[in-house]
Amino acid sequence: MKVSVIGGTGPQGLGIALRLAIEGVEVIVGSRKEEKALTVVDEAKEKYADYDLSNMCGMSNEDAAKEGDVLILTVPLAAQKPTVEGIKEFCTDKIVMDATVPLETAIGGKPFRFVDLMEGSAAERTAKILDGTGAKVICAFCNISNSHLSNIPEEIDCDCLIAGDDKESKEIAVEIINKIPGIRTIDTGILEKARIIEKITPLLIGLNIKYRSHYGGLRITGIPKLDE
User: Fold this and answer.
1) Neighbour-count burial for 171-200, b at 16+ CB within 10 Å, e otherwise
2) For the chain, which terminal residue's Cβ has fewer other Cβ atoms within 10 angstroms, N or C?
């Protein structure tokens, strides 16, 4: 199974790509410009030369979306709509995990403030754009910090909350995300729950700022493991 990280040259996307590639997943790093994707992948392979990253390559977002079986969207809010519209034709019947968070930074504001969207959440906006393609949209990775992702090889002490309307697609998403050491993925329910999940991110950012940390995360207690 090929996983394409759309907009994967930023800290979040590259962190996800590296974490999955290290665990043996075939990963495509997408970028608006193919040249940038190729450069970032080459630099990553040089930096993490101790790992076999032959299963990671770079492409344009469009080619990455075309080649990938599962897509992970990791772009800022301002780039979300044009990016999704640009890859829409390649999303037919695919799983699309959306990590977009509507932060006020998109309009020049503070990173710990949330922007309310007409669709209810960023993930729901992606689902609306992809309506009619058969794509299964899942809100995922919103509450996993870039610092955690890039802190290789340390395990990530954080749960990943996901939401989506298709049970089988969420099971596949859980299988992929749980490959990253330390993460436990928790299915919170239907895609509408993304409205809650996405608001956790600015809270964690605010806590990191307040306590001068980069690794603020979230653990859900009192519920059974997903594989029990």
Assistant:
1) ebbbebbbbbeebbbbbbeebebbbebbbe
2) C
How would you list the strands of the sheet with 159-164, edge to edge? 56-60, 26-31, 2-6, 70-73, 95-98, 136-139, 159-164, 184-187
User: Rounded CA gap, 3 and 68, in Å?
Assistant: 5
pLDDT value of residue 105 = 67
Is the separation of the CB atoms in 87 and 6 below 8 Å? Answer: yes
With a cut of 50, say whether residue 87 has pLDDT above it.
yes
DSSP state for residue 228 in the 8-state scheme: -
DSSP state of 103: B
From CA 195, how far away is CA 145, in angstroms rounded?
A: 18
pLDDT tens-digit map of 30-54: 999 999 999 999 999 999 999 999 9
What mean pLDDT, rounded, does the chain reach?
A: 93
Return d(Cα 74, Cα 19) in angstroms, integer: 14
Instruction: Give me the phi and psi of 218, to 5 degrees please.
Output: -140, 130
Q: What is the maximal distance between C-alpha atoms in the chain?
A: 47
